[in-house]
Amino acid sequence: MDADGFVSITKRLKKRGIVPTRNADIFSFGLDISTRNTGLVCMGLWNNKVRVANFEISYQKEFGKNSAYTKESLERLIRAQEIGNKIVCVMNNMVRDPIAVEDWCDNLVIITSIEGYSFASRGRAIVHMGEFGGIIRTAIMDRAFGGTIFEVAPGSWRKSIVGKGNASKEAMIPIYEELVGSSQDVSSDVIDAFALSLYSLVENGYLEGYNEWRDKFVAKGGLVQETKERRRKPRKPCKSSKGKRKQAS
Question: What predicted TM-score, i.e. pTM, was given to this entire model?
C-alpha cells in the first residue's frame, strides 16, 4: 500500500489484458450509499498505472432517550450529514495527496459514480433512502472534488461488470478477487463501490480489454458457483390440505 492509501493493481489488470487507453490523470470514485454503511472506492490512473483505495464509512452513534435527537427522523438526518462529511473529507484527501506528490493537474479528470435508487424499495423506505441520499449527494456536489457526477442504475453497472443486469451482490465477489485481491475483510458495500468505479472507467473508455476478459471469465465458469448456490436454496415445504385431514383423523 502506498503512503496515500492506494494499492497498485496494474500487474493484475495487465495479466488479464486490461490496460489504460488515454494519456490522462484520472480519479474514478464509486459510491454505494446506505443508511448504515457506505462503500467508497477510488481508482486512480496516472503514469500508466492503476491504483485502488477502499473505504467503508459508517456512523454508529446511538442517541439516548434524553437526547434532543430522540426522533428517528432527526437521527437519520444527523447520520446522513455525518456520513456526508466523512465522504467529502476522504474524497478531498485522496485527490490532494497524489497531486502534491506527482505534481499533475493539467489533464486531471475526476468522475464520481453513485448507485441510483432501487426500484424494489417500497413504502417509507423510498422516502428514507431518498432523503438520506439527497443529503449526501448535496454534500459531494457542494464541497468535494467530485468532478462529473453520474447516477448509475443498479442494472446498468451490474450488466457491464458481470454481464447480467439482475446479478446478485455475491456475483461481484469473484470479479473483485480477480482484479484486486482477497475479499475476506471487504464488505459488500465496498465491493459494489469498486464495481461502480470500474464501470465509469470502462464505459468512458479509460480502460480497454475489460469486456473481453469478463466474457472469457464468465464463460470459464467464474460466476457459475454463485448461480448454482442461489438455485440450491431449499424451498419451504408446503402443507397440503390432505396432510391436515390425515392428522385430524
Answer: 0.79
